[in-house]
């Protein structure tokens, strides 16, 4: 009889330090066991790697939510050491009571969260130059969409772009911005003088900027593009609130201070994820009062943050709101973020040989379409006060994608979602398959219904996002969303093969 070894808190702590250092590409000596894990900037995929390795070591599946409730390596290691292998309950060290390892989040009233600091009011009136701003403040410049928005702003304006970036100093900040643009092949040395790093942090008051620098920016910036957010599908609302909600509040504070500055806010179609919108058509200017049934912490923060932007708009701040769906690669080059959920899922399913037979629509929009549309629409006077849907106007079904992949000679089967889950649990046992590290995320059950993340995105649960007004507003430009056809899919596949991410052999 093989008994699973019992690990002490020290054992688990040493294991986590080693593996966190490996994931982050650093040394164990640089890991502080008392530091909040969120401060290490783990993305969803990296968090899943840690969770999966812990599952393999301990013999049970820790809830990803534990990463928030026990936010340091020291605290998490202690909690996990109290788990009895093979049992679903653990003893709480603080009070001696027993509770389940899957901690239920507290009740969250998103409506009550949507309160904007009453001191944030537009000051005076200013001449708003939407089309020719001299100085632009941008968040999210080290992200995927943010990189392409920078590219468009540099091409379409003569402005200097001040980019908020988390870094030790200006030099490191500039290096981060340059490297991000380089990895998507959109860096040009001519950009150098027009990109200015602003060292700060969305999650801190005044964006982590000194009071003096905040005042200077407030006086000199002409317009703001807020595309920055902590995108993590693992963390609950409470873990993402400071960056995504309070960060948006601080951006609005900057916009209102000293002089009025328009805010162009990148939101998400996720604001309509409430079950009350399932099967209904939602248009760009429709309100989004309902929040019950939004389960992902990230989506919850986007709902609250956009509500704050709407409140600021009602107070007189000029805003435009841009709601993209999941964002796909560049339609011309195929360059994409290979660490995003879509690419990891497709690669994993290809390796499995199975796709789940579910009613999914591929409504992702190419990043170049989204960035061009955001910049064009933001520069039109008529756009002020409006929202835009950058949803793909002609989504394709998952089944059509699988059929297209089969033309390459793949032996692919579509099996029921339940069978696919069984395959995922029993046969995806190596980290060579990206789904291995995503298993805790894919199998975690949410809400009283005990549904998984993939259940949330079944077509029957989703709204129908109309983008008719957005397409009409883009008619004065040459910006058109490329169709999801063989040409686009070949562009994407070619890039993924050239980088070695996919192998069709």
Q: Features of this protein?
A:
single chain; 505 residues; alpha/beta; Non-ribosomal Peptide Synthetase Peptidyl Carrier Protein, Chain A; Rossmann fold; 2 domains; 7-stranded parallel beta sheet; two-stranded antiparallel sheet; 19 strands; 40% helix; 12% strand; globular
Description:
Strand 17 (445-446) and strand 18 (451-452) form a beta hairpin. Mean pLDDT is 86; it is low at 86-104. Helix 6 packs across helix 12 and helix 9 packs parallel to helix 10 (297-314). The protein has two domains: 9-100, Orthogonal Bundle (Non-ribosomal Peptide Synthetase Peptidyl Carrier Protein, Chain A), CATH 1.10.1200.10; 127-333 and 364-395 and 465-487, 3-Layer(aba) Sandwich (Rossmann fold), CATH 3.40.50. Strands 5-4-3-6-7-9-14 form a seven-stranded parallel beta sheet, with helices on both faces. A two-stranded antiparallel sheet has the order 1-2. Strands 8-19 form a two-stranded parallel sheet. It is 40% helix and 12% strand. The protein has 505 residues and is of the alpha/beta class.
């Amino acid at each position: 009889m093989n008994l699973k070894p019992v690990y002490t808190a020290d054992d688990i702590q040493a294991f986590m330090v080693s593996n966190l250092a490996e994931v982050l590409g650093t040394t164990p000596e640089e890991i502080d066991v008392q530091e909040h894990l969120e401060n290490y900037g783990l993305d969803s995929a990296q968090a899943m790697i840690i969770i999966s390795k812990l599952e393999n070591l301990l013999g049970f599946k820790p809830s990803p939510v534990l990463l928030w409730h026990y936010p340091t390596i020291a605290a998490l290691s202690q909690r996990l050491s109290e788990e009895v292998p093979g049992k679903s309950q653990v003893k709480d060290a603080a009070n001696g009571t027993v509770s389940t390892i899957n901690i239920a989040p507290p009740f969250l009233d998103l409506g009550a969260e949507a309160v904007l600091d009453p001191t944030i009011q537009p000051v005076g009136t200013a001449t708003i130059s939407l089309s020719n701003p001299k100085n632009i403040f941008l968040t999210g410049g080290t992200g995927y969409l943010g990189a392409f928005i920078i590219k468009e702003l540099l091409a379409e304006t003569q402005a200097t772009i001040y980019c908020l970036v988390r870094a030790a100093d200006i030099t490191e900040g500039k290096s981060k911005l340059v490297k991000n643009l380089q990895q998507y092949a959109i860096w040009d040395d001519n950009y150098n003088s027009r990109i200015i790093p602003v060292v700060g942090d969305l999650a801190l008051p005044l964006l982590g900027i000194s009071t003096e620098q905040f005042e200077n920016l407030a006086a000199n910036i002409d317009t703001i593009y807020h595309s920055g957010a902590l995108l993590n599908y693992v963390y609950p609302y409470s873990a993402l609130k400071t960056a995504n909600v309070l960060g948006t509040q601080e951006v609005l504070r900057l916009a209102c201070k000293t002089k009025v500055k328009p805010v162009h806010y990148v939101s998400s179609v996720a604001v309509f994820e409430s079950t009350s919108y399932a099967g209904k058509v939602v248009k760009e200017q429709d309100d989004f009062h309902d929040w019950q049934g939004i389960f992902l912490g990230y989506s919850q923060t986007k709902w609250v943050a956009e509500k704050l932007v709407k409140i600021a708009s009602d107070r007189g701040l000029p805003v435009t709101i841009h709601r993209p769906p999941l964002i796909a690669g560049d339609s011309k080059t195929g360059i994409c973020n290979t660490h995003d959920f879509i690419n990891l899922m497709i690669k994993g399913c290809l390796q499995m040989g199975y796709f789940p037979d579910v009613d999914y629509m591929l409504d992702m929009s190419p990043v170049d379409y989204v960035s061009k549309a955001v910049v064009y629409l933001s520069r039109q006077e008529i756009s002020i006060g409006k929202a835009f849907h950058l949803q793909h106007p002609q989504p394709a079904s998952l089944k059509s994608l699988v059929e297209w992949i089969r033309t390459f000679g793949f032996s692919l089967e579509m099996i029921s979602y339940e069978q696919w889950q069984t395959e995922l649990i029993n046969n995806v046992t190596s980290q060579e398959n990206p789904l291995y590290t995503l298993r805790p995320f894919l199998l975690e059950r949410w809400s009283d219904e005990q549904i998984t993340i993939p259940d949330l995105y079944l077509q029957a649960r989703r709204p129908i996002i109309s983008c008719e007004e957005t397409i009409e507003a883009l008619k004065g430009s040459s910006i058109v969303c490329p169709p999801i056809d063989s040409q686009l899919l070949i562009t994407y596949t070619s890039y993924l093969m050239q980088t070695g991410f996919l192998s069709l052999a």
